[in-house]
């Protein structure tokens, strides 16, 4: 109950208001019918005796119709408002759904547009790259013969002159590809060889290579021998063997093509580094012979007479091509035997250049 409104609740006040409206409508209906209202009758009852009045069926019908009109109008307005509110709510919901749907469609359209834009950009990029590459190829076709010619020239130059590049380098590397790092510690006083294999050892050049003996001095035989080590180059007047009085001549390559499979193609590339007093060792028939360098000279390939001269000592001469990478000249390195101490022969081998064959040419590098 609400004390501020006569002790009535909100619902009771609404009910009272509705009753008052109904009462006024009923009174109005009675007035229209020419009947005294119950309130008028009640007032007049104090002035005169009560009079019995019969209400006809028509009056009751009008009374009933008035109440029906009231309730019909009241509830019609209520449901009309409810329906209107419902319709507005539905319209708002429909509008919101339409907005969301439109927004989703716009988003989808935007995503589709972005995707199409990316695809179009990618296609344009690929097309531009292809066009640029095609133009480059079209322009480069005119340069193909030039580049081909330059490539051929470079290949030919490399094949012809690669040994001039690599030979000086190999002169300061292990020419014989040996892994024996102990050859620099050889005792020159030891005369016993560790094996019966015939080989040459030059500690300063890190050379440890087999010597092939007793071969013909024709070009093919000497070349085949130098593919497997160094070769004994025997000619009249210079055909001694290790330990014998006379000149023991050994030849080896100083340069070869880098793509050649001959592992000894650079074996004598470092001979120019030998100086007087440097030691050369030769193992022959289980004996180690030690030689000491005495001189170096450069001669023409046909000057085989430089290998033939009078001597009463065992000596060794090493031959190779010079300058490095070419076969224009021959470098001769001569050394005398110092161990075992040679017995000086009373007989001097008195060979002269005239005794040598003028048709013989000193061996050269690989062709």
Q: Can I get a quick summary?
A:
This protein is α+β, with helices and mostly antiparallel strands and 367 residues long. It has helices at residues 10-33, 38-44, 57-140, 144-170, 219-226, and strands at 199-202, 207-212, 230-232, 246-251, 279-284, 287-299, 314-322, 329-339.
Structure commentary:
With about 375 residues, the protein is α+β, with helices and mostly antiparallel strands. About 40% of the residues lie in helices and about 15% in strands. An eight-stranded mixed beta barrel has the order 1-2-3-4-7-8-6-5. It is rod-shaped, with a radius of gyration of 65 Å. The protein starts with 9 loop residues before the first helix and ends in a 28-residue tail after the last strand. Residues about 35-55 and about 350-355 have low confidence and may be disordered.
Instruction: Give the strand order of the largest sheet, numbering strands 1, 2, ... along the chain.
Output: 1-2-3-4-7-8-6-5
Radius of gyration: 65 Å
Write down how many β-strands occur, each being a DSSP E stretch of 2 or more residues. 8
The SSE string, one letter per element, is HHHHEEHEEEEEE
**Termini gap:** 131 Å
Give the percentage of residues in beta strands.
15-25%
Unreliable residue runs:
35-53, 350-356
Tertiary shape: rod-shaped
What is the arithmetic mean of pLDDT?
76
Determine the fraction of residues in helical runs and give it as a percent range.
40-55%
Number of helices: 5
Q: Please outline the major beta sheet.
A: 8 strands, mixed, barrel
Secondary structural class: alpha+beta
């Amino acid at each position: 109950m609400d004390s501020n409104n006569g002790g009535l609740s909100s619902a009771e006040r609404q009910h009272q208001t509705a009753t008052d409206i109904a009462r006024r409508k009923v009174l109005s209906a009675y007035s229209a019918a020419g009947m005294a209202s119950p309130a008028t009758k009640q007032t007049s009852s104090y002035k005169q005796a009560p009079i019995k009045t019969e209400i006809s069926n028509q009056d009751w019908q009008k009374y009933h119709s008035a109440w029906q009109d009231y309730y019909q109008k009241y509830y019609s307005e209520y449901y009309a408002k409810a329906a209107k509110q419902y319709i507005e709510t539905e319209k708002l919901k429909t509008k919101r759904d339409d907005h969301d749907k439109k927004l989703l469609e716009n988003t989808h359209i935007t995503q589709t547009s972005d995707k199409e834009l990316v695809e179009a950009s990618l296609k344009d990029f690929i097309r531009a790259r292809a066009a640029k590459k095609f133009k480059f190829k079209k322009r480069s076709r005119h340069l193909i013969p030039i580049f081909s010619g330059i490539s051929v020239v470079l290949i030919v130059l490399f094949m012809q002159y690669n040994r001039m590049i690599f030979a000086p380098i190999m002169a300061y590397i292990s020419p014989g590809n040996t892994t024996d790092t102990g050859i620099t510690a050889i005792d020159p006083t030891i005369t016993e060889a560790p094996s019966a294999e015939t080989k040459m050892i030059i500690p300063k050049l890190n050379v440890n290579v087999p010597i092939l003996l007793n071969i013909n001095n024709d070009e093919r035989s000497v070349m085949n021998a130098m593919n497997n080590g160094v070769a004994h180059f025997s000619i009249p007047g210079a055909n001694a063997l290790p330990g014998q009085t006379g000149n023991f001549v050994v030849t080896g390559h100083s340069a070869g093509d880098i793509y050649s499979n001959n592992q000894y193609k650079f074996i004598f590339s470092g001979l120019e580094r030998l100086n007087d007093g440097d030691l050369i060792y030769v193992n022959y028939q289980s004996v180690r012979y030690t030689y000491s360098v005495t001189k170096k000279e450069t001669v023409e390939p046909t000057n085989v007479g430089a290998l033939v001269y009078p001597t009463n000592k065992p000596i060794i001469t090493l031959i190779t091509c010079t300058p490095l990478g070419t076969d224009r000249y021959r470098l001769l390195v001569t050394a005398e035997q110092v161990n075992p101490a040679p017995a000086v022969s009373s007989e001097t081998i008195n060979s002269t250049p005239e005794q040598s064959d003028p048709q013989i040419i000193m061996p050269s590098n690989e062709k």
